[in-house]
Structures are given as C-alpha cells and as structure tokens.
Design a protein that fits this description.
The complex is a heterodimer of chains A (343) and B (349). By secondary structure, chain A is of the alpha/beta class. Helix content of chain A is 43%, strand content 19%. Chain A contains ten helices and 14 strands. In chain A, a hairpin with a 5-residue loop joins strand 11 and strand 12. The radius of gyration of chain A is 23 Å and the shape is elongated. Chain B is an all-alpha fold and 349 residues long. Helices cover 73% and strands 1% of the residues of chain B. In chain B, strands 1-2 form a two-stranded antiparallel sheet. Classes of the chains: A alpha/beta (343), B mainly alpha (349). Chains A and B meet through helix 1 and helix 3 of A and helix 4, helix 5, helix 15 and helix 16 of B.
C-alpha cells in the first residue's frame, strides 16, 4: 500500500511541477499581444533568424528604438536554431496574438510563405529585413544594401589587400542562405571580369556557426598553402576566421575581409589580422524596418513602387521595385574609424 | 502430508499478485502524460491570451504532423530495444527524391512511388546491417543519418526544388471542413490505429515486447527476432518517407536539409510518452500524448511571450523528469516484488 501511494504521489508530483511552470510563466508575461498607442495597432514583433546572434541583437535594438519613438509595443521572439521552417511556429503565434506588424529575417524564402500569408489575411503587416521571402508573401523588404554593392566592395577590399593577384577562398554561412549565395554569384563574375589574376579556389560553408566556421578556416589554410586571402560575407564567419588567423602563423600573411561588426572585429583590426571590412549599420536596418512597418499599419503606404514614407532620424525613403526599400551603400571599417562605432 | 497442506490453501491466481484492472489502466505513465496534456491545455486555455479557440490546434497540427507520423514506427523500434536515428535523414532524402522526380515531369504519382521506395530502401539498408550483419542499431543509424543526408546534399546541393502542384498541396494541407484539423492527420489516425492494433493486440506485437524484455527468452518462445526487426526498420523507412513527402509539400520546397534534426524531436516525444529506452515497455497512446504535450507546451509558452531558450528548458525538464520518474517507479516495483531482498535467503538450492 505504501509503495502504491508513493507511486501515485510521484506521478501527481510531476504533473503539478509542470503545471506550475506553465501557469507561472503564463501569468508573468501573458500580456504581449493586443494593441496599444491609440487607434492603430503599433504592436510590432521582431523575428530574427535565430536568437543569441549579436547582429540581430543590434538590428532589433534599432527596431526597439524606433518603436519607442512612435509609441508602439516592441517584442522579440525567435527560434534557437536557424533551420528553414523553425520560424513558422513564431509567425503563427504572432498571428494568434493579433500583433499589428511582424518584422522578420527569413531563414528560407519558401518555407514561411503559407504562414506569413495566413497572418496577412488576418490583417498583420509583414516586413522582411536582412533576408527576404518570396515577394508575394510580404508587404515590404528592407534591403541592407544591394547585392551588387556588397559583393563588389568585398572583392575590391580583398584585391587591394593582396595586391590584385593570387588565390582567394570564400567562407560563407549555410549552403542555402539566400543572401550569401546571391553575393557569391556576383563576386565570382566580378572577379572573372575585373580581376583576372585572382583565382577563387573554393567556397566553404560554416553554417553561421562559430566552431564550424573556425574549423573550415583551418581546413582552407591547410588545403591551399598558396592561399592569399579569405572573403567571409557573414558576421559569424569573419570573426571565427579572424580568431583563427590571429593565433596562427598566417596572421598578417593571409588577408581576411568580408562583412563584420565593429565590436566583433575591433581586436583583430587593431592587432593587424584584418585591414578593412565592410557592413551596413544593422541598427539602422532594424530602425528603418520598424518605421516601414508603422507606415504600413497607418495605411500611408501599401508597398507599391514609388511610395514614400518618413523614417525618423534616417529621413525619408522611397519604395523601389518589387516592394524593396534600400538602406544605402555599404560602409568600410578600418583602424582609423572603427573607434567611432559601437555595435 | 504435504499434499493435504497444499490442498488446504486456496489457489492463488495471477490476479491476486497483479494490481486491479482500473489501477493497471489508470495509474500508468501513459495516463500521467495524458493527464498532464489535458491539464496543460486547460491551464493554458484559461490563462494564456490567444490560446483558446481553434487557431492553436489549427497551427499546431501541421507543425507536429511529421513528428507524429515518425513516432509510430519509432515507438515499435524502441520497444524492441533498438533505435533508429536515421529517420530525419531518410525523410529528407525521400523529400528530395520526391522533388527531383516531380520536377523531372514524371508526374506526382510516380514521384510519390519513387520517394516511398527510397524510404523502403533506406530502411532495408538499416535492417540489413542490424539484423544480417548483426551490428548495433545505434551505430548503424548514426552512420546512415550522415549517409542519407549526404546523399540528399549530393543530389540537390544548394538547389531549391519546389512549386509542387497546388492540388497535391491542398490534398494534405487543407483542413477538414468545419474543423481545425488538416487532412494529413486523417492519414496519421489511420496509421496510428494500424500500429496500435499490431503492437497491442496481435502476436506480432507481443513478440515486439518480448524482444525488448529479453531477446533470449523471445528467441526460445519462437519469436523471429531478425525478421521482426528487419521489417520494423523497413516500415520506419517507409513512414519516414511519408513524413518527408509531407514536409516537402508543406514547405513547398525540397531542400537538402529538410527535416534536419527531426529525429531528436521524435525520440524525445517517444520517451516522454513512457516508452523505455531499454525496450520492453511503452504504449502508443502515451507517445501520441507525448508529441502533443511538447507541442502544446511550446504553443502556450510562445503565446505567453517566452523565448525559445525557455521553451527548450521547459521541454528538457519535462523529458528528464519523465525519464527519472519511469526509472524511479521501476525501482520501487522491484523493491516491492522482492521485499528486503538482501535479508532473506532463497533457501538451499
């Protein structure tokens, strides 16, 4: 009898624990949804590719700043890993909560479409930033820089650093990453047409994972002893590659450039591992995305080409072809100016 | 003399040693998980804004359908004491094969058959190495997890094969009129009934449990262990292929990394549902409740505004608590069957 009681108690105990966890959490933060800020529903949710990514921390902070300026409600949710459909359940949740706008950096252009369109049918505005979905699944795409500008600035930087000749390799993000693949295509053509003495030996994929990118860098350097430069068009990749180079015999001998953030790259620029790298300001990107979402919610714009809207401190923007808004030209960071930035 | 003593004592049946029927049905791990599922649903329904109403179920079911499907054969395999870690890679490979065949203009029907055959072949490869060569399933399926994914990457690389016929997509994704339930769940329910019948109501099912409890004993009782296991791995490959096709249709794209990592969601749900990782015990209703419990806890926590790290932690705690509870209860049961096992001596042998 005694043991039976223990058994029943144990089962009940587990049930109770989980119930408490569930209710406790729910009661604590159960007021995310709903509209605030007068008539318009300025409750805006940011959905990055994954959480714990410094780049999205910065962009989403920019979004939070903008949303605070116009008196909306900011929330940030996201999956732990950046797999193609891991964002679907968060989109569904935002739709259920009835948020006014969703700002998303998509892990996949197709896999999110059904969810996004269901949410849009229910009145939610969808703005993509950083990484787009198919144009018929969102209202606007905030483009950080056009692919051409990004690809060319990186190739120009590496060419300048290696003297315009020699072997280079590319350390990319995931093999299916929309942005990186588009940039790599343009880089390949641009190298062939403008820098005939540069040979692109291989594109490797670090999956936007620090350790994988680190290992792939080591692999590149051992596979190609003549390698003179690495382009890493992803912030996770370039900092992992710089970390490897800075402690290896290749420091200062193998050039590294690409897209990075000043805070991640500061030490490597100051110690001579990296001469210069490029990026836009992700904070501005999130800020612009938030104002674009507001303009959509207000009904000031519909996402049609030629629509104009105000973006706070960034000034006025015009919607281009395919519902795309361009943030501006990429910016080159080097030892002279890196101290001016903190993101 | 001794004969009369024995005759005086009433004959004790299995019933006297076992627990009463209601106890055996109600006080089980499976019922605890089902109870917990109901509890979580009710608590979330009352306290989480937006959870009430059909939308939660409408959004949840399409996202867990692949896990639900693969959990069926996985349960049977784990009950035999084996494991299949290659299910997600098989699903990915079948999805890619489906996309390629459909893209090549073979028609959806042929593409379906090709993809299902890929699944059967993948399962047969696992089954061959495990039952004919006699290697442990853990080692074999870790290998084929990488192998099948590698084949998928080799077949499509970074290409995106998509744009499946709209009729095919709506056939699986459209909801049953008037309900929040997508059509794929009908297929799941049919399969679940078949699996439950086989596992719990046929000699083959008792054989599966017997293998998990004691391979030796099962062999001596006439269970054809190798054949049973081989068939289970083939069925696992087949159902994984169904899940892979479903996933490709749902996302409308066949990528090399479709369903990556899904095997862990499946195994987590199966163990939460009360199946012993050592084999020999478990039931399908517990497993289905396990999948739904993880799903609803995720829905509720997301709606409450919690981030994915918190959801992972809660799911992890649930799983560990469930496994610990199973082991703890098993330990109690052993203690009860052999009271004071150390003191008493079984007498002269």
């Amino acid at each position: 009898m005694f043991n039976r009681k223990i058994r029943a108690t144990a089962v009940a105990g587990i049930a109770l624990t989980v119930a408490l966890v569930a209710t406790g959490c729910a009661a604590g933060t159960g007021d995310t949804g709903g509209d605030t800020g007068g008539d318009a529903n300025y409750s805006i949710t940011f959905l990055p590719k994954n959480l714990g990514n410094a780049y999205f921390d910065t962009s989403d902070a920019g979004g939070a700043e903008a949303i605070e300026e116009f008196g909306g409600t900011y929330a940030e949710v996201g999956p732990a890993t950046a797999t193609p459909d891991s964002q679907v359940s968060f989109i569904d949740t935002a739709a259920q909560q009835g948020v006014g706008g969703l700002v998303v950096s998509a892990n996949d252009p197709d896999a999110l479409c059904d969810s996004l369109n269901t949410a849009r049918d229910n009145g939610m505005k969808v703005v993509t930033f950083d990484s787009d979905v198919n144009a018929d699944c969102r209202d606007l795409f905030i483009n950080q820089a056009d692919a051409e500008g990004i690809a060319k600035v990186e190739v120009d930087l590496i060419a300048e650093q290696i003297g315009g000749a020699g072997q280079v390799a590319i350390l990319s993000a995931a093999a299916t990453a929309t942005n990186q693949n588009a940039w790599i295509d343009i880089m390949t053509e641009y190298i062939a047409s403008d820098y005939p003495d540069i040979e692109l030996v291989e594109v490797v994929y670090g999956d936007d994972d620090d350790q994988t990118s680190f290992d792939k860098t080591a692999g590149l350097l051992s596979t190609y002893p003549e390698l003179k430069g690495i382009i890493s068009p992803t912030t996770v990749g370039i900092s992992a590659a710089a970390r490897y180079l800075s402690t290896s015999e290749f420091k200062g001998k193998v050039a590294l450039t690409g897209l990075g953030t000043p805070n991640q790259m500061r030490d490597y620029v100051l110690d001579g591992t990296v001469t210069a790298f490029a990026l836009w300001n992700p904070g501005d990107l999130g800020y612009l995305a938030a104002y674009a979402t507001k303009a959509l919610i207000d009904g000031d714009i519909t996402g049609a080409e030629g629509d104009e809207f105000d973006a706070g401190k960034l000034g006025s923007y015009t919607v281009g072809a395919n519902g795309t808004v361009l943030l501006g030209d990429p910016f080159t960071f080097n030892a002279d100016n890196i101290g001016d930035f903190d993101f | 003399m001794s004969d009369t003593i024995l005759a005086d004592k009433p004959v004790r049946t299995y019933r006297d040693y076992g627990r009463p029927l209601w106890r055996r049905i109600l006080l089980t791990h499976e019922m605890a998980i089902i109870g917990l599922l109901v509890l979580v649903y009710i608590v979330a329904y009352v306290s989480v804004p937006g959870f009430a109403g059909p939308l939660t179920i409408q959004y949840l079911l399409p996202n867990v359908a692949a896990v639900l499907l693969i959990a069926l054969p996985m349960t049977l395999i784990i009950v035999t004491g084996e494991i299949d870690l290659s299910v997600a890679s098989t699903a990915g490979l079948a999805g890619v094969a489906f996309g390629i065949a459909n893209n090549a203009g073979l028609g959806v029907g042929v593409a379906l058959v090709v993809a299902l055959l890929v699944g059967v072949a993948a399962g047969a490869v696992n089954g061959f190495f495990i039952t004919v060569v006699g290697l442990p399933s853990l080692a074999v399926t870790i290998g084929t997890l990488a192998l099948f994914r590698g084949l998928a990457v080799g077949l499509v690389g970074t290409d995106r094969i998509g744009d499946f016929p709209a009729e095919m997509r709506s056939l699986v994704l459209d909801r049953i009129p008037g309900t929040p339930i997508p059509n794929i769940i009908v297929l799941f329910v049919v399969l679940a009934l078949v699996f439950a019948l086989v596992l719990h109501f046929t000699p083959a099912g008792r054989g599966i449990f017997a293998i998990g409890l004691s391979s030796e004993a099962a062999r001596f009782s006439g269970v054809r262990i190798e054949r049973t296991k081989f068939l289970l791995f083939v069925v696992s490959g087949l159902v994984s292929a169904v899940a892979g096709i479903y996933y490709a249709l749902k996302t409308n794209v066949s990528l090399a990394d479709n369903t990556a990592g899904l095997e862990l969601s499946v195994i987590a749900a199966v163990l939460l549902g009360g199946v012993s990782i050592f084999g020999g015990r478990g039931a399908l209703h517990g497993v289905i409740a396990g999948v739904l419990l993880i799903g609803f806890v995720g829905s509720a926590l997301r709606l409450a505004g919690l981030t994915s790290d918190v959801i992972s932690i809660v799911t992890g705690v649930l799983l560990v608590a469930s496994v610990v509870a199973t082991s703890f209860l098993a330990w109690l049961r052993v203690k009860r069957v052999v009271p004071g096992g150390k003191k008493g001596s079984p007498g002269p042998v």
